[in-house]
Design a protein that fits this description.
It contains five helices and no strands. It has 66 residues and is an all-alpha fold. Helix 2 (18-25) crosses helix 3.
Length: 66
């Protein structure tokens, strides 16, 4: 699974909409959409914020081969 799909899946499992997830970490909804689509890859710092916003471990996001 790609990183973008992992972020999308984690957000859906958390029951959070894109605009809410983006607001929680201080980025635009468009930026969040680009991460989920795989257009751009979030920085390591942003990955940490994403994990915190979705209440998950960073290691779960980084295990992209699963």
């Amino acid at each position: 699974m790609t990183l973008g799909k992992k972020i999308l899946s984690a957000r859906r499992e958390a029951g959070v909409k894109q605009n809410e997830a983006a607001r929680r970490i201080g980025v635009s909804k468009q930026q969040w959409q680009q991460w989920e689509a795989g257009v751009y890859t979030p920085s390591y710092k942003s990955l940490g914020k994403i994990a915190m916003a979705l209440r998950m471990k960073l290691s779960s996001l980084l295990s992209v081969g699963e």
